[in-house]
Write a structure and sequence with these properties.
The chain is of the alpha+beta class and about 260 residues long. Helices cover about 25% and strands about 20% of the residues. It is built from 4 helices and 6 strands, in the order αβαββαββαβ. A 6-stranded mixed beta sheet has the order 1-3-2-4-5-6.
Length: about 260
């Protein structure tokens, strides 16, 4: 006859090792979840910013086709909600002395020196803004309410390439503005871009590959042989930092768009 076995004593809790393992597993799970959510939020933000840049592409193309519509801002005018000055008021002599110069000629002179996306690049800003300023919303004779204040997408050329934080309230900007870096496109390579003044035919000399020490196209649009001007537009989110802080900054553009300005 076998003697009766003593019952096993019941456990009164978890051992230190088990508690430590459980805490470690929970910690790893939390860190994994935070990492996944952080990555997801970053992807969503990138998509939203890219969509904003895409919305600005059509407006930018329209502005380059009609450069007289580009707003000119300086330290004072970026505080004002009403437009009073445009690109032709920036003192750049873009019409060549002819007030009725074609839009292509104006855009050509504006971009002719943009031989690279470094020191020679041209910078513009694209942003959405409310037509009525913050201090006028739902007040005064206009009687606009915030929910009925119409918005527009605007393209601006700024003195010193700076769009400061003062423009956020002054222009009643919605969301993050985009700064756009414009430069001449490599599509010019291999093209006979200059007209011979003797026979008025394109010169046999072709545009060489970059880097270009000077502009690969003639100074005046009258000497330009092609029926279009190809440029590259690089879109970046603008955080209202100054031009001196971002001009040499190494950053990937949200969007790169090839644009052709037709004659």
């Amino acid at each position: 006859m076998n003697p009766p076995r003593n019952p096993s004593p019941s456990r009164s809790g978890f051992s230190l090792i088990e508690v430590t393992l459980a805490i470690g597993i929970v910690g790893v799970a939390i860190l994994s979840l935070v990492g996944i959510l952080g990555s997801t939020f970053q992807q969503v933000d990138d998509i939203m910013q890219t969509n904003r840049a895409l919305a600005g592409v059509n407006r930018l193309i329209g502005a380059l086709d009609n450069p007289r519509s580009i707003v000119h801002l300086n330290d004072q005018r970026e505080k004002e909600v009403d437009n009073s000055k445009y690109l032709m008021d920036a003192g750049l002599n873009l019409d060549g002395g002819n007030p009725s110069a074609p839009s292509f000629d104006i855009a050509y002179r504006f971009l002719q020196k943009a031989s690279d996306n470094g020191a020679n690049a041209v910078w513009l800003y694209v942003y959405e803004r409310k037509i009525v300023g913050m201090e006028s919303d739902k007040t005064g004779d206009a009687a606009y309410a915030l929910f009925s204040n119409p918005s527009i997408i605007e393209v601006a050329y700024c003195d010193g390439n700076n769009l400061s934080l003062q423009a956020f309230a002054g222009r009643n900007i919605i969301g993050s503005p985009m700064r756009v870096r414009l430069s001449l496109s490599k599509l010019l390579v291999g093209q006979r871009a200059e007209i011979d003044a003797t026979n008025f035919e394109p010169k046999t000399t072709k545009v060489s590959p970059p880097p270009w020490g000077t502009s690969p196209i003639p100074q005046q649009p009258s000497a330009y042989a092609l029926a279009y001007l190809p440029i590259v537009a690089e879109f970046f989110t603008h955080d209202y930092s100054s031009y001196t802080s971002f001009k040499d900054k190494s950053e990937e553009p949200l969007l790169v768009q090839n644009i052709v300005i037709s004659r």
